[in-house]
Amino acid sequence: MSCNTNPLGVSLNQCIAKSLPLLPGNSYNFNVGADRYHKPQHWGLSRGVPVLKDRDCPRNKPGIGGKTQPPWAPCHTMPETSIYPKGSGPKVPSWLAFDKQVLAFEGYFQEPIPESPLENYRVHQCRIMFFLEDDTVKVTEPPTYNAGLPQGTIIRRHRIPLPPPCEDHYYNVEHFNVGCEINLYGKVFFICSCDAFTRNFLNRLGIPVPENLGLPADQATEKMLDAKTSQFARKPYLSVDTRGPFLLHDRHVLRFWAFWDDRCNMYGDLRQFVIHYFLSDGTIEVREIIRPNSGYDSFPVFIRRGRVPREAKDLVPLPGVETPLTILNVFGSIHASACGKARYLVDNLGIGGRDICYYRDSDLAIGAVVNVFGRAFTLTDCDEFTKQYYREKYNIQDFTPLVLNEPKPQQPCPEVPPYTGWGTEEDSLVSWNSLELKPVVKDYRKAAAKEKDILRFDAKFYCPLQKVNAARRFTINYYMSDDTIQIFEKEHPNVGLPKGNFLVRCEVKKPGWQPEVGLDPEYYAPGDFYVGAILDINSFKFQLLSADEFTLSYMEANRQLFPHSDIARCLTKFPHSDIARCLTKVREAFGPLQSESVLQCFAQNDTCLQGVMDLRNFRSLLLEVSKCAMSEHEITTLSRAYACHAPLPGTDWQTLQAICQTELRKNNFDKTLLARIEYTFRYHDPCRSGLIDRDTLGATLKGAKMPLFKDLMNYLVANFPTAAGDTCCRVNYCDLLKYLNWEDNPAPVAKPAAVQCVMKWIEPKPPLKILCVNYRAFLEDVCPNFKCALPSVCCCGTGQPCAQHPCQPPGSEEGFCPNPDDGESELPQCQPQVPIEVHVQPCCIEPISAQGHKCSPDAHTCNDLSGAGDCSQNQGQTQFECQVQAPCCS
């Protein structure tokens, strides 16, 4: 050992430096001159395995920097062998086997109090926890009220060494047991008890655990509790424990909607409320539902939260009648209380008290009447939580709410001021509704949707006073986009008045508007326009005579706006509940009828007896049967619904051939080029069937650049006749090429014309005039029970029933027809009938030397029923312009 070191391994300089007081100038740095700073190595290798060297006496190893460790340095040696035998089983590390397992002990330690004359020591109760996973110990003291001392964790969790002379060992599970004393850093703790897990764990280790001992009482703590409890009165007050319902039903509220009908009293009203029942304490709160402009102050609570008695008697009792407590005079007189010689006691039994029944949750239900301090509230409905509560507790399933039939108050309409004369009526109304001047908001959606919907009517003056006005004719246009009206006067010879605008486009008010009274103006609506209507427009009365095809179709499509175009409404003019009522109408119009047929009034105007009659006769019969209750527009609607339209004349293939060959001849498209097209057709026809589909036909003609109009070529490809017997709608291209060959199969040369006119010539439309009406279908719709349509021709000479009479019974005599009116009657045999035909003679194209187009010379004419007819070739032009008579029924 060096002379500079003492037996404890500390240098003399260090001993002298440490003995000096810690003052400025006496601090020394003991690391001056040191050349080693690393920690000593206690590990080594033995046969390639790392092992701990000097495990028996590690204290001989030098410390940090090679310094010799003092004798009091901890000796990290292997623990001695336990006196308890080891258990069987797999060897698992302690930190894994005893993870989150703690031995808990209750104990105490005594703190001496020498400065207090009242106590010698104070007992501190503490909790000792031993962690099995790493043999650490933690000691805590539970906090006490107003202790005045730092409490909580006394010793933090760590491994605690044993007291000297065994300071090189640590506390383990063997040192803790009930009834033991342990010395932790100089404080002696006495263990009094442990929990069940600790007792079972120690018993499994073979350590017997005594019974738990009681903790000693602390005098200072008891005196503090006595001082605190002495502040409360020791009289036996009556107390009701309400903590149970509070803990179970806190924040649970039953919500009901109710009303209070106070209209029987003066200035009373029907008022609505929300009632809240609090399940925690049985209190009720009432809130009123304040409606806008009700006239009541919007208080948040109508009746504040409190218990509501069932019987509202003596709401404000006299003083002393109802008291929360009953006082008993134990001894002494009443007047001796001033001298202090009387004693009183609270009656816990409440014998003299008054029992008050309050509303409970079982008293509330939909339809129940709750008396809330004299006001009868009727419950009408509840929320979902309330319904679920009553389902679970009272098994109630019916929660049908009560409907409150409250009359809606009539809101007074503000009086609109009269028209000021500035701008339009709409401008004045907008300026009255708002202080800020704004333009009138228009319905742009309606304007965009109905921009092209214009209703056109022919009109004349109604009952003119001057004869010159009787011949004037007008066209009235009604614009559906903005409900405006425009009147255009037609040119008429020998009148002396120019044609042009009679009324510019504007909104027209109905007559009878009085602005000085303050009435709103009423404008003409779509329902006011129908054929036969009389319109008073700016003091001029017009009668609508007719309408164009678009107007009639539009009105029939929008029958909800135009009731006169509703076919169902028109048929209601004729009751059709049974045939007797229909016959009654007919008899009222034509008088008593014979029993032969009810249709003689219609059939007498039907010369061919085919159920078709003239339009004029049909109109006159409708007016007679309906007693003039039908308007002209309704008659027009029925005529259009039951009209006999002429069949379409079909394609004029001669005209089409003439036009196509004329175009090919003009462009020198000869048969050589047609032969090339035929070669292409044969290429697409490998079977040599002579047929080709229309798609290939159109593509081939377009690829060959055939000089035809596009619309004309598409029409030719789409409508050329299909080959006979072909089910695939294919075309015989040999016939087509022969049809177009102007050299070998020439057609008359056509006059050059525009393609629009060409398409009209090829496929003309039938005339728009309705000439004949199927009155038989009309009567079948009016009278659904009607069967015998033409009784005068029931059976033919062959003895078989005719097609018009499906009710002819088999085996009946010839000429016999049952009549619903007169029973059975004999009728003469009918002759073979000639069916009626509605035919339109098509136009044809004559050679170019002819002057214009003309109808066929063999076309016959008849008297037009409605004035000037329309030419079937040139639709829209009258016969005066076209100079060709229109065809009619033959």
From TrEMBL:
Protein name: DM10 domain-containing protein
Database matches in InterPro entries: DM10_dom, EFHC1/EFHC2/EFHB
PROSITE patterns in alphabetical order: DM10
Cellular component terms per the entry's GO annotation: axoneme; microtubule
SMART domains: DM10 (SM00676)
Organism: Allacma fusca
Subcellular location: Cytoplasm, Cytoskeleton, Cilium axoneme
Domain of life, per lineage: Eukaryota
DM10 domain residues: 99-206, 250-394, 451-559
Major localization listed first in the record, in broad terms: cytoplasm
UniProt keyword list: Cell projection, Cytoplasm, Cytoskeleton, Repeat
GO biological process: regulation of neuron projection development
